[in-house]
Amino acid sequence: MRWWKVVGLAGLAGVAATGAVVARAERKRRQYTPDEIRDRLHQRVAEAADSDDISIAE
Asked: What is the distance between the alpha carbons of residues 18 and 13, in angstroms, rounded to a whole number?
């Protein structure tokens, strides 16, 4: 087998693996309910506000 065939097959395998990882992450992301997303966003905003208060005090 020529080296360019091996490189091409490795590239194809990499693309397929990346697609599988992206599909898994998308399925996991879509499992959240709107209430869960809202709660997470409120939590992140509160954490950001807390960290901003610390950096302003310095």
From this structure: 9
User: Alpha-carbon distance 55 to 58, whole Å?
Assistant: 5
Instruction: Output the six-digit token pair for 16.
Output: 């397929």
Digits of tens for pLDDT over the chain (58 positions)?
788 899 999 999 999 999 999 999 988 888 888 899 899 999 999 999 887 665 544 4
pTM (2 decimals)?
A: 0.46
Query: Which two structure tokens, joined as six digits, stand for 12?
Result: 């194809």
- The DSSP string of 1-58 is --HHHHHHHHHHHHHHHHHHHHHHHHHHHHT--HHHHHHHHHHHHHHHHHHHHHHHH-
